[in-house]
Design a protein that fits this description.
Largest interface: A-B, 168 and 169 residues
Shape of chain A: elongated
Largest sheet of chain A: 6 strands, parallel
Number of strands of chain A: 12
Number of helices of chain B: 19
Largest sheet of chain B: 6 strands, parallel
Strand content of chain B: 5-15%
Strand content of chain A: 5-15%
Helix content of chain B: 40-55%
Oligomer: heterodimer
Helix content of chain A: 40-55%
Shape of chain B: elongated
Number of helices of chain A: 19
Radius of gyration of chain B: 26 Å
Strand order of the largest sheet of chain B: 3-2-1-4-5-6
Structural class of chain B: alpha/beta
Radius of gyration of chain A: 26 Å
């Protein structure tokens, strides 16, 4: 079946997360993605993470997510052979996608000017930490630095304590999403207007975009928002996380109607609060009334804390599920998500066979198209899995292939020795 | 100048954030966006938020961000007249974009089948809370509920205490980004393959995608990750947020080379730690060595805490800026972002004129295209600002326009009366 990006060829020269995850989206949507890896492989291939007791050599979680169904070739991108191979790949590509630094790429022979000379209608898509120009254009970045730079970390944690890390690599993944968005926008621009171009985005830019409301608020008012623990800094009312009698966590936004608010107060054993004039309209409960510091709105919080603490999670879920005008959700953990009928039915969580693990739950396409839906194309590849196949397609003969592979093995050997490890051959 | 989406026409029937912010991206990239607002206007128009002392009637930060440069009409979409106007807009549009619930849209006459009968080439793009299928397809959502459902709240906060809220409306904004990505993807498919279709995304899906690494880790290992305060749950080493002697907060990932690690330890007055075998390789400092529980890697944390507490922020920044192999960032607040030369140089922060405020810093395009860069098209519109202009373009005469506007006024009056407010105007 035709998919949206059927016929689009992508060459990915990228490592870890921002670049590969963006190319993963393109792959799910039907593009052919060839991943170019160094002899030792993408750094995320064998990044095992915490409490991971799978057999040694099992692919890491980050790698699995970002590289499902891609083809991969192992070459030394710094060698003449490697450069010739990559230039041949680019000659047949629509998109060159990278999260290497542009200064390194230019030095290695993969700068925009060089690749566009090979393929004039190429979309050259580069993502980095902090944007392509400016004093920190070349600065190295990992996820937490992006979240620290964009302000999200400052906004997360208790008001009277130190900031905390939002619990996921949001700078990388939002950057990846924006890179995919930039690539598709540029492909559309090429289709509509015949213009090929370079796409640049960064994890910093994506962080700013994700926080546009809060940053715009600071810009307009001149008054910085303050992190607020279980609450959103710009929503001074009840909106927040509360503990139930059995120690579970419940997020509650607000009650959209007066009836549901009274019903909540009755259930919580505080019917008199339902008619209290401080909170008897949704605008007041959200802290949107004429109360700039939100003092009045915030006075509801102790009542909410006591109310939610008075019953168990099961009691609350049963009640709240019967009140569609109360916006809430139990605080789910990742296992809840993996088992959630809602996630399964929408295809957000699917199963795929992964080498050495077998059938495993993975994240499926989260953008659903009715006529050309995306699909997972299979297991992430083993290191070098398609090297020969791709080199043959490019017109190399077996002598060339042996030479290129011997060089890769030598490099890999040296890498092991440099790390003080026993080389595998 | 031509932009990537020049010539693409979008009709937006959406409110607050997920829908409007997505359409805001399309507008920045050159699409024409006509938004259809209710007589009383988008709820975000006058949502003032905390510490906002701008004059009453000033547009809210969320509205300013999402609606820059759009045209807007204000009509009663539940009336026969309103429906006729929206149908005429749809007849000339490429994209219909909404974050209303599909059940309500169908009831009101704006379901996919109704609109595609009017315009067979329409891309119908709908974003909701939890996905368009499944038991909770019609469930209402606000940002925190998306964050709670996807697992991010559970992962944020101290290990031995209750979870805290990540400090931005990330479920809405990531959902908006995915909606924009879905729309550009579908527009590309229409150009390439001649297929028009429905696009569905959700904040839940976007949350799952943002956390793909962490969720994949839980899926593969069967062992849930645990929130870890200033650290990332899946990185047991030094990676985290630390307090300086003067109470500032610094995020530090890791020194990438052994030289920079030794240099760090020397500067911190703990030279002997630099050669300690527990952390003398980057894989060990990151907790990637053969230590599944991360027990050894995390033993570095007290040393790091003492090290950072021994010097001021200014001292640390001066030292760390001289060590490009050490990945770090000071924890910025929003004002730091607004003033950051890096954000300004990349156009992430720009200035735009906003009614009643004058020149104000706003978020510019964070996806940068070299030949068809996006641009901010102007201030967010006042309520109903383009009603007459758009109606004239659709072929209505002045008698019809007066009647339509009177209907809108009557609908507005009813809304005020329902809220118990003064209707003397």
């Amino acid at each position: 079946m035709v998919e949206v990006l059927t016929g689009i060829n992508v060459v990915e020269l990228a490592g870890a997360l921002q670049g590969p995850a963006a190319a993963g989206y393109l792959r799910d949507m039907g593009a052919e993605v060839i991943k170019v890896e160094p002899p030792e492989g993408d750094a995320s291939r064998y990044h095992r993470g915490v409490n991971n007791f799978t057999p040694p050599g099992t692919l890491g979680a980050q790698f699995i997510h970002a590289n499902k169904g891609k083809r991969t070739i192992t070459v030394d991108a710094n060698s003449d052979d490697g450069r010739a191979v990559i230039h041949k790949l680019v000659a047949g590509a629509d998109v060159f996608l990278t999260n290497f630094r542009e200064s390194s790429l230019a030095r290695m022979g993969y700068g925009y000017e060089e690749l566009r000379a090979i393929k004039p209608d190429l979309i050259y898509a580069a993502v980095n930490g902090f944007g392509p120009v400016g004093p920190d254009a070349e600065k190295g970045m990992v996820d937490g630095a992006g979240m620290a730079r964009g302000g999200l970390m400052h906004m997360t944690g208790p008001r009277d304590g130190a900031p905390m890390l939002p619990g996921a690599v949001l700078a990388d993944m939002a950057g990846a999403m924006q890179l995919a968005l930039g690539v598709v926008t540029a492909l559309l621009g090429r289709e509509l207007h015949g213009i090929a171009q370079k796409v640049n985005n960064s994890s910093y830019g994506a962080q700013i975009w994700l926080q546009a409301w809060e940053i715009q608020q600071a810009a307009m008012t001149g008054n910085p928002l303050k992190r607020d623990g279980a609450h959103h800094p710009n929503l001074p009312g009840m909106y927040g996380i509360y503990a139930t009698a059995d120690g579970e966590a419940l997020f509650i936004a607000f009650h959209m109607t007066e009836e549901s608010w009274q019903s909540f107060c009755n259930f919580a054993g505080m019917p008199e609060i339902g008619t209290d004039e401080r909170w008897n309209a949704v605008t007041k409960r959200m802290g949107m009334g004429g109360d700039a510091e939100g003092k009045m709105a915030a006075q509801i919080r102790p009542y909410m804390t006591r109310a939610i603490a008075s019953k168990t999670m099961a009691e609350w879920v049963e009640f709240l599920d019967s009140e569609p005008d109360i916006i809430y959700n139990r605080v789910c953990d990742h296992q809840d998500v993996l088992d959630d009928p809602q996630a399964l039915e929408n295809g957000y969580i699917q199963e795929v066979d992964v080498d050495m693990i077998g059938s495993t739950k993975v994240v499926g396409p989260t953008i659903t198209l009715s006529e050309t839906p995306g699909s997972i194309k299979g297991s992430p590849p083993q290191l070098g899995q398609h090297t020969e196949e791709i080199l043959l397609e490019l017109g190399y003969d077996w002598d060339d292939i042996v030479r290129i592979n011997d060089h890769s093995r030598q490099m890999l050997r040296q890498k092991f020795i440099a790390l003080g490890m026993e080389p595998p051959f | 100048m031509v932009e990537a989406l020049t010539g693409v026409k979008v009709v937006e029937m959406a409110a607050a954030l997920q829908g409007p912010a997505a359409a805001g991206y399309l507008r920045d990239m050159g699409a024409e966006v006509t938004r259809v607002e209710s007589p009383e206007g988008d709820g975000a128009r006058y949502h003032r938020g905390a510490y906002n002392y701008t004059p009453p009637g000033t547009m809210g930060a969320q509205f300013v961000h999402s609606n820059k440069g759009k045209r807007t009409i204000s009509i009663d979409v539940t009336s026969g007249q309103g429906r006729e106007i929206v149908y005429k807009l749809v007849a000339g549009a490429d994209v219909f974009l909404t974050n209303r619930r599909e059940v309500s849209l169908e009831r009101m006459g704006y379901g996919y089948d109704a609109l595609r009968a009017i315009n067979p080439g329409i891309i119908y793009a709908a974003v909701n809370g939890f996905g368009h299928l499944g038991p909770e397809a019609d469930k209402r959502m606000v940002d925190g509920a998306g964050l709670a459902r996807g697992g991010l709240i559970h992962m944020t906060g101290p290990r031995d205490g209750p979870p805290v809220l990540p400090g931005a409306v990330i479920a809405d904004m990531a959902g908006a980004m995915q909606l924009a990505l879905g729309i550009t993807t579908a527009l590309f498919a229409r150009e390439r393959h001649g297929v028009a279709q429905k696009v569905n995304t959700s904040s839940y899906g976007a949350q799952i995608w943002l956390q793909a690494w962490e969720i994949q880790q839980a899926a593969m290992t069967g062992n849930p990750l645990m929130r870890d305060g200033p650290h990332h749950a899946n990185l047991p080493g030094m990676y985290g947020v630390y307090a300086t002697a003067d109470g500032g907060a610094i995020f530090l990932a890791f020194p990438r080379t052994d030289e920079s690690w030794q240099s760090f330890c020397d500067f911190a007055g703990m030279s002997e730690i630099g050669v300690d075998e527990r952390w003398n390789k980057i894989t060990k400092r990151m907790g990637m060595a053969f230590d599944p529980e991360g027990t050894v890697a995390s033993q570095i944390r007290p040393y790091m805490e003492r090290a950072f507490a021994s010097k001021t922020m200014a001292e640390w920044v001066e030292f760390l800026d001289s060590e490009p192999q050490i990945i770090y960032n000071r924890v910025f607040d929003h004002q730091d972002v607004l003033d950051d030369p890096q954000a300004l140089a990349n156009g992430y922060i720009q200035e735009a004129d906003v009614d009643m405020l004058g020149p104000t810093k706003v978020i510019g395009p964070t996806v940068v295209l070299s030949e068809t860069p996006g641009s901010i098209k102007g201030p967010p519109p006042q309520l109903g600002q383009h009603t007459e202009e758009v109606l004239l373009e659709l072929g209505y005469d002045w008698d019809a326009i007066v009647e339509i506007n009177e209907q809108t006024q009557r609908a507005l009056r009813r809304t005020y009366t329902d809220l118990g407010e003064d209707t003397s105007d």
